[in-house]
Amino acid sequence: MRRWRTMVVTGCIALMTMCQQIAAQHAAIDPQAWAAYKAKFLDATGRIVDNGNGNISHSEGQGYGLLLAYLSNSPADFEQIWYFTRTELLLRDDGLAAWKWDPAVTPHVTDTNNASDGDMLIAYALALAGSAWNKKDYLEAAATIAQSLLSHAVVHAGGRTLLLPGIKGYTASERDDGPVVNPSYWVYEAIPVMALLAPSDEWQRLTDDGLSLLRSMQVGPRKLPADWVSLRTMPRPAYGFEAEFGYNAIRIPLYLARAGISDTALLTRLQAGITFEGDEPATIDLATGKPKQPLADPGYRIVDDVLACVTSGAKLPASVRQFVPSLYYPSTLQLLGLAFVEEKHPECL
């Protein structure tokens, strides 16, 4: 235990140094855009409201809210979101967050399983904010979550290092087609920070194997990954889920871009797969390659525009640069996309 604490301290010092070197990073979102996001999705208790999903809250939303508050340089809003997160969701014995909170039900936590992407987003945002704002309690909380993820959600199967979507329900012993993963749960920009918080070579292997899987997941005529993937044999859509490139997977290209992953072949393939000439983005039936549900919101369209920016230097169209919040999820993706371009590719604005 003493050795682990020493490693965490060393990692946190390195993280603080990194954040000091990129101090401008945490003011990347326009104040008016953040104010509009808060007015639409952040309630007085500090919960991020998913208005497209019955007004529930979840660990993913809290993690996104924390990250956006950091990117907006809004410590008071960050603390408000963190208060709800730690008092209402961080209830599990293993240090991870219960994933689902429903205002219409008592008790409000209706599923105590974790969602590993939500946990990673929370830890990532806490680490960045703790480093930038010199908040040791944030860093300590981030380190605890990162170590819990490493201990319980990062696993080995079939010669790969994987991120379980949740602690329960996805392993080979729990599903006939297990292990099952969700490739959009790999938050690539966050993984190096997890390695500073909970030092281990496993994190690099998690990144490497996640990217290797993405390169191999070329389902159907559009050669796209499924939202939920069985790895019992070769990667294929998991039983019990729609065989589609859907609302989960749409964020994968944005995560790759934000992490600075410069695999041109992978990015170009994804861009080609999600683009329909003359049409809006859509969820995609993997077997036929045909669109299912249109994704007209600018928060979905910006994913393709960010890819065009990083692969060819194309400017973001005015339609996605203007932020008018609608539904929680695409509005979140839009702010993450705009913040990334503001920080890393201002030439595309």
UniProtKB/TrEMBL annotation:
Molecular function in Gene Ontology: cellulase activity
Signal peptide coordinates: 1-23
Enzyme kind, highest EC tier: hydrolase
Top-level taxon in the UniProt lineage: Bacteria
Keyword Metal-binding among record annotations: no
Catalytic activity from the UniProt record: Endohydrolysis of (1->4)-beta-D-glucosidic linkages in cellulose, lichenin and cereal beta-D-glucans
Keyword Iron-sulfur: no
Gene Ontology biological process terms from the UniProt entry: cellulose catabolic process
EC numbers, comma separated: 3.2.1.4
InterPro entries cross-referenced by the UniProt entry: 6-hairpin_glycosidase_sf, 6hp_glycosidase-like_sf, Glyco_hydro_8
Family: Belongs to the glycosyl hydrolase 8 (cellulase D) family.
Stated name of the protein: cellulase
Organism from which the protein derives: Rhizobium jaguaris
Phylogenetic placement of the source organism: Bacteria, Pseudomonadati, Pseudomonadota, Alphaproteobacteria, Hyphomicrobiales
